[in-house]
C-alpha cells in the first residue's frame, strides 16, 4: 500500500465539483486514482464500496439532526401555538452535516444567522406587514446585510427572515418569541447533534472554529 495523499491535496476544490453527478465507469475511477500523488493501491470495487459507505454515513448524520428537531417538535410543541420545525432548518442541516468545513456551517454562523434573521423578519412583519411585498424584500435584504456585518452569514437565515414574514397566523402570533423558538432552539438542537455525530470519525473535526 502506497502513501495516502495529504489532506490538503485531496480537498482542493476543482471546476468538476460544480458539475452535476454522473455515473462513473471503472475506467473513470482508475484514471482518477492514477492522477493522485502516491497512487492508491485499491480496486475500483473498493472505491465504490468506500463511496457508498461515505454517502450512507453522510445521510445518517443528516437524518439524525432533522430527526431530533422533528421528534422534539412532535412531542413537545404539536397541539400548542408554538413550533420548533421550520423549513430553513433543513437547509442548515445540509451545511452542518454535509459541508462541515464550510465557514457558513460553523456554530457562530448557524446560531447567529438564524437569530439575527428571525429578529429582522419579525420586525419587518410588524412594521411593514400592511405591504407584504415590501416586508418580504426588506426582511431578506436586511438579514443578508446584518449577517455580513456581524460575520454570521448563513444562507438558510434568509429563509428564516422570510418565514417570519410569510408564515402562518400561528407564526405571526408568536411575535418576537419566534426569535427564541424556533430560530434559536432549533439551530441549537442541530448543533448538539452535529457535535456528537461529526466528531465520531477521527478524520473529521467539527467545528472548525467557534467565534
TrEMBL record:
InterPro entries: HPP, TM_HPP. Residues 63-207 form the HPP transmembrane region domain. The chain crosses the membrane at residues 82-100, 109-128, 174-197. Pfam families: TM_HPP (PF04982). Keywords: Membrane, Transmembrane, Transmembrane helix. This is HPP family protein. It comes from Thiobaca trueperi.
